[in-house]
Amino acid sequence: MDTKLILDIIGDFFEILLAYLFFQVFFSGWRIQKKSAIIIFILVFACKLAGSYYLPEAWMKTAWALLCYLTITFCYHGTFLSKILMTLFFWATNVIVEYGVHGFLMFSAGEIYATGNNRLQDYAIGLMLSKLILMFFYFLLFYYVKHKNEQILATLEHKWYLAFLLYPSITVVILIQQYYLILENQNIDSLNRFLFTSVLLILSNLIIFRILNEMQHLQAVKLQAEFAEQQLNSQEKHYAELVEKNSAIKKQVHDTKNFLLILQSYIQQNKRQQALDQLQSMLNTVGGDLIEYTENIVLDTVLSAKIQEASRQQINIIPAVALYGTLAIKTIDLALLLGNALDNAIEATVKVSEPERKKIWLTMKLQENILHIILKNPVKEHVAIHNQSIPTSKQNNELHGLGITNMKTIVDKYRGTFDIRCSEQQFILNIVLENEAAT
To answer: Are 91 and 61 in contact (CB under 8 A)?
Structure first.
């Protein structure tokens, strides 16, 4: 096979890989299934390679490359304008780095590189160095944007970053040393060995960065789990206090008849001041409204609190609860589950501008030892969902997303299923739990 064609294949392969890394930084998630995206990437690679090989003019190759990059962006969510801008940005960074590598080689290799007598060798070293530098740059960009937008809760120690960042620098030195070796030997076998070694080195850099990303992800998950546990404990304490308060309210409401009888007696005896004092005492005692939806004071407390909270935001929560049987699920777990779910639904519905859409539908049904919970709320715009989680673009909100983590933790305790999906206008949470003791 022609060595120039081999170089083009390697170059286009790494370019498509770099496009994947680059667009992952700026777009929120896939618009299509991953299998379909892989097919599109393969087709774009084939088209890019064909254009590099068959198009005669440089401007034609540039226009064709831009079209290929733009095609890749349609695998992701985002506006058409943002996709055009990111395509141009990706192309510009490629051009800048290639010219930068060319200038570096002119400076470091001097006349050896500048003569143009070693075109294949020069093309090979320039190609490998530029792709390695671009990959390094995009990984740095990926970590920076990810940390800035998602407020990662944990980072690795600095020594790990320094150790991993040292590897690309060593790779650059090795590539340059190999360049001088192939110039000394001046044969095609040396060039082929250089290409093989360079591809392995670049792929090993990719694996190293992948390991770094996984280590960081595991560290973040570990700390997030600790935050989630703290939040669950805090919520459990909060709901316990609410239940205690509402239990007292319920007792007071139960004794209302006695208060009214006493009040009636004072009025009949024209004891106006005593009647007012008794009435004020009752008003001070009864400090909240508890509506019975489930005949379970804990669940009723949570539902009443969330319905009142939503009402203050001009949001209407419509509950439909049918519990046929005895709940074996710990009531506090169910309260935490509903509390987190309704918090997320209220937060999303607040952003909706149309008053007629500000409605949340809650369905909870216990039947045949299965508890089924469905929560539907409107959304302002489409919500990207990745691996049953919602990537957040919020800043300065480290605990955002822990609500979903908490819900998943509770669902797992009861061997349940957790599913979230989003249409253009509605977000749907679907939870199924076994009505048995937690594992």
So the answer is: no
Residue 146 CA to residue 27 CA, distance in Å, equals: 11
CA atoms within 13 A on the CB side of 421: 5
Residue 78: which region, alpha, beta or left (left: phi > 0; alpha: psi -120 to 50)? left
Q: How far apart are CA 77 and CA 25, in angstroms?
A: 12
The whole-angstrom separation of Cα 424 and Cα 383 is 8
Q: If you search the block for the tokens 């049987």, which residue do you land on?
A: 325
Q: CA neighbours within 13 Å on the CB side: how many for 332? A: 14
CATH 3.40.120.10 fits 290-439, yes or no: no
Q: How far apart are CA 121 and CA 115, in angstroms?
A: 12
Give the pair of three-digit tokens for residue 52.
Answer: 């590099």
Counting beta carbons within 10 angstroms of the beta carbon of residue 12, is it exposed (0 to 12), middle (13 to 18) or buried (19 or more)?
A: buried
pLDDT per residue as tens digits for the range 181-222: 766 666 677 777 777 888 888 788 778 777 776 776 676 666
Token pair 């909100």 in the structure block, residue: 397
CATH 3.30.565.10 spans which residues of the chain?
290-439
The reported pLDDT for the residue numbered 137 is 83
SS (H, E, C) 126-138: HHHHHHHHHHHHH
Helix (H, G, I), strand (E, B) or coil at 82: helix
Amino acid at 354: E
